[in-house]
Automatic annotation (TrEMBL):
One of its GO terms (cellular component) is plastid. Belongs to the ycf23 family. Its main location: plastid. This is Uncharacterized protein ycf23. The keyword Electron transport does not apply. Gene3D superfamilies: Aldolase class I. It comes from Diacronema lutheri. Residues 1-16 form the signal peptide. The keyword Signal applies. Keywords: Plastid, Signal.
């Protein structure tokens, strides 16, 4: 019975998506997307609930949580923001979407790098193909591994367009080792993600949205927009704070920084 229900829910979601652009993509189209990430391997409902509350209070565009149907229900109980679920196992997406997830994401891969696991371009493309076979209409985000040389990152981004990928996410924070303190160190940490966002956005143009993630802060979020990204994803800079008020203020600083950058861009 539950399988039949899941099929019906997915069919309804697919029909809704065909009627127009889903709300989860609107902030990307307006180049103001701020995704707050709780972590691909974070299945702690208390932690996820707190991150989602902070994202809502701070004015984020969407939340990104681990791919689990019950966790989606936890997130939905405290926020009406669009929910993205992340995994490297496409089969897990189906139940999460049936529970209310509005976007699925392949990656990011930070938690795997610490275990010595990397992903090739072919592996990422295969994961994307399998995801599209299961969920042909759901908004799809795919992370480009920063372990690939920049030219191969661009080539992979181009290849992913064949699968109607909606958002291409860059990364790099785990591999970046800043040498300087303060603001300069923040820029050094974000540099790989910013460089990839610049090159990939030049390649894909308007065919897909680009999101910069890993090492992004309120200092570097405006730089991501200037580099060609349509939004940013932020995880540890927010959820490591622990305190709900501090997390909310961190989200608000990011929103304000991005808004100011967009105003300056229009004036210029």
């Amino acid at each position: 019975m539950w399988k039949l229900l899941a099929v019906l829910v997915l069919a309804q979601a697919a029909a809704a998506l065909r009627m127009g652009s889903p709300r989860v993509l609107t902030p990307f189209a307006e180049r103001r997307a701020l995704k707050v990430i709780s972590g691909l391997m974070n299945f702690d409902p208390v932690s996820v609930r707190n991150v989602c509350k902070a994202a809502q209070a701070g004015g984020a565009s969407l939340v990104d949580i681990a791919c689990d149907a019950e966790l989606v229900k936890v997130a939905r109980s405290v926020t009406d923001l669009p929910i993205c679920v992340s995994s490297v196992e496409p089969e897990r997406f189906v139940a999460a979407v049936a529970s209310g997830a509005e976007m699925v994401e392949i990656g990011n891969y930070d938690c795997f790098y610490t275990e010595g696991i990397t992903f090739s371009a072919q592996q990422v493309e295969d994961l994307t193909r399998r995801t599209r076979e299961l969920l042909p209409d759901i908004p799809l985000s795919v992370t480009i591994p920063h372990t690939l040389p920049i030219d191969q990152q661009v080539a992979l981004a181009e290849a992913l367009l064949a699968y109607s990928v909606d958002v291409i996410q860059t990364e790099g924070g785990m591999g970046a080792k800043p040498f300087s303190p303060g603001v300069l160190g923040m820029i050094e940490k974000a540099a790989p993600a910013l460089a990839a966002a610049h090159e990939i956005s030049r390649c894909v143009g308007s065919r897909a949205h680009v999101m910069a993630a890993s090492g992004i802060s309120d200092v570097t979020a405006p730089l991501a927009l200037a580099a060609g990204a349509d939004g940013v994803g932020v995880g540890s800079a927010i959820n490591k704070l622990g305190d709900a008020i501090a997390m909310s203020f961190a989200v608000r600083r990011l929103v304000d920084a991005m808004d100011a950058a967009r105003v300056a861009e229009r004036v210029a």
